[in-house]
Design goal:
Shape: globular
Radius of gyration: 21 Å
Number of strands: 7
Length: 196
């Protein structure tokens, strides 16, 4: 009987591990692409899965509640927050987010259109996320939209920014440092950085 006690304790402790959602890595997609979402690395026993996307307009989720796998169809350019909620049989749940940025390839410039300063810049060319040039008005608008959102939506936006700029200050670090500020303070930061 004493030999069974440690084994029973180990089994009962293992059953108490709460679920943990794992929605996968962020991604940059061209307009019209269909992306596979994989939540199979989530942890827990007998999990149920529910995917969601914000904003709901411009992106379509298929098979969002059947399994850890779903698909996202990119119907409009923009920045989308993807959430995965997992729940176990005991009713314990966890939610985690990732993001998808949808770019319109028609807005990208040909390599012949780039000057050496553009190509070497952190905001465009080889250093740009996804290789597309950000229109300043679009960046201003995306930043101000993210400023109104949750802290995790703000951090997701910050992660789309280049790590450094020509003034040697980290735009991404500066963005992330105001994560816990008010929406108004984040909006003011956006205006000062991208909306002048």
């Amino acid at each position: 009987m004493l030999r069974l006690l440690p084994a029973l304790l180990l089994v009962s402790c293992a059953a108490e591990v709460p679920p943990r959602a794992e929605p996968g890595d962020p991604r940059v997609l061209p307009l019209g692409a269909v992306a596979a979402l994989d939540g199979s690395y989530s942890e827990g026993d007998d999990l149920s899965f529910a995917w969601s996307v914000e904003p709901a307009e411009g992106a379509v989720l298929n098979d969002a509640e059947k399994a850890p796998f779903a698909t996202l169809t990119a119907e409009a350019p923009g920045f989308y927050t993807l959430s995965l909620e997992v729940c176990d049989a005991a009713g314990r749940c966890d939610v985690a987010e990732t993001w998808a940025r949808v770019e319109d390839p028609a807005r990208a410039r040909k390599i012949d259109d780039w000057g050496i300063d553009d190509f070497a810049s952190a905001m465009s060319g080889a250093g740009a996320l996804g290789g597309f040039k950000d229109d300043e008005d679009d960046l201003c608008q995306r930043c101000r939209e993210a400023a109104k959102g949750t802290s995790s939506q703000w951090v997701s936006f910050c992660n789309t920014l280049p790590k450094t700029t020509s003034d040697e200050r980290s735009v991404r670090g500066s963005c992330q440092s105001i994560n816990l500020k008010t929406s108004q303070e984040r909006d003011n930061w956006c205006f000062g950085k991208f909306c002048d």
